[in-house]
From TrEMBL:
Source species of the chain: Bradyrhizobium erythrophlei
Domain of life: Bacteria
Protein name: HTH merR-type domain-containing protein
Length: 154
């Protein structure tokens, strides 16, 4: 699937639920992530469109979600790259992939990865009182639907 920036942006706007009047600010957030190295793209040369992968679109989506949870952009980029690199693209043995990132802080770059509801339930038995859980597999499903929709509209 050859994805141009316009496809990725449209899909992210869809998944994140950006309102039309907030698209300018959202584009600014995406530009800031790009300046921080997310996604990692090859130089395309003059006049050529950059091609994005689904994985790169997911890296951007995960970073945006982490920012919404209070992580600073630099930390969100670092976490996102690691999470997407380590997680399966979809499910693992028919189980959703869940991420439990450490609370936002200056040196917060750790997270726990779990697969399936049973792992999550086991964690809950011994978990702290407050935590954040991100279903990476659900994000992938939503992103894929939104990417398909953006390709059809193009």
């Amino acid at each position: 699937m050859d994805l141009k920036y316009k496809h990725v942006e449209a899909a992210l706007v869809d998944v994140v639920g950006v309102k039309p009047k907030a698209i300018g600010a959202f584009r600014g957030r995406l530009r800031h992530l790009r300046k921080l190295g997310l996604p990692q793209l090859q130089a395309s040369g003059s006049g050529k469109h950059l091609i994005y992968t689904q994985r790169q679109a997911l890296e951007m989506l995960v970073a945006i979600q982490l920012e919404k949870l209070g992580h600073k952009p630099e930390g969100a980029v670092k976490l996102s790259l690691s999470i997407v690199r380590q997680s399966p693209f979809g499910q693992y043995e028919s189980k959703d992939c869940y991420i439990l990132p450490d609370p936002p802080s200056e040196d917060s770059d750790r997270y726990r990865m779990m697969f399936g509801a049973n792992d999550v339930c086991e964690f809950l038995a011994f978990s702290p009182e407050v935590f954040t859980l991100v279903n990476i597999s659900a994000l992938i499903r939503k992103l894929n639907v939104a990417l398909d929709r953006s390709l059809k509209l193009a």
